[in-house]
Amino acid sequence: MAVGKPAKHAVEELTEGQQNRRRMLAWLSSVGLFGSAIISAISNLVFIKPRATYGAPNRFGIGKPDDFPSGTRIALGEHRVCIVREGDKLCAISTTCTHLGCIIAPSETGFACPCHGSRFDQDGNVTGGPAPKPLPWYALSLAPNGELEVDKGTEVGAGTYLKV
Ligand code: FES
C-alpha cells in the first residue's frame, strides 16, 4: 500500500463576509418559503369557493300589467319569453325554439324561428318546420307588489291565462 500525502481536509474558518452571505441566503430562502406558503394559502381560499353559475333565475318580475296593453305580444329577449295580453288576460309563452333552441320572434301568424324555419301559431303550436313540440307556456302570477311574475320553472297548459 502506497503511502502518500495525507488528504488535506479543508476545514477553513469562514470569513466574516462569508458568514454574512450565508445568513443573508438563509434569510432570503426563509422569506421565499414563507411567501410561497402565503400565496398557496390564498389561492386555496380562492378556489375553495365554487365558481359554478346557475343561470338566470326561473322566477322574475316583468313589470306591472299596465306595461302590457291589450292586444300586445311583447318578447322579452333577455328572459326568452313572450308576454301576450288579450283584454284582461295575460300569458307567458317561451320564445326558445323547441327544435334546437334558437330564439324565436313574434310574427304575423304567431312565432317564427330564424334558424331552420319552424313556425308556431299564436298559442305556440307547431305549424311548420322541424320543431318537434309546441312552445311551453309558463306560470304567470301577480306578486304582492302588483308586479307580474313569470315562473319558468313551472309549465302550464296552453290557454292558461292570468286575469288582471
Ligand atoms: S332552432 Fe328553430 S327551427 Fe331549428
Structural class: alpha+beta
Compounds present?
FE2/S2 (inorganic) cluster
Unreliable segments of 5+ consecutive residues? none
Order of helices and strands: HEEEEEEEEEEE
Work out the radius of gyration.
36 Å
Beta-strand fraction estimate: 25-35%
Shape: elongated
Share of helical residues: 10-25%
Distance between the termini: 114 Å
The helix count comes to: 1
The major beta sheet can be summarized as: 7 strands, antiparallel
Mean residue pLDDT: 90
The strand count comes to: 11
Provide a compact summary of the structure.
With 164 residues, this protein is α+β, with helices and mostly antiparallel strands. It has one helix spanning 16-48; strands spanning 59-63, 73-76, 81-86, 89-94, 105-106, 110-112, 119-121, 126-128, 137-142, 148-156, 162-163.
Q: Topology of this protein?
A:
Blueprint: H1 16-48, E1 59-63, E2 73-76, E3 81-86, E4 89-94, E5 105-106, E6 110-112, E7 119-121, E8 126-128, E9 137-142, E10 148-156, E11 162-163
Antiparallel strand pairs: 1-10, 2-3, 3-4, 4-9, 4-11, 5-6, 6-7, 7-8, 9-10
This protein binds FE2/S2 (inorganic) cluster.
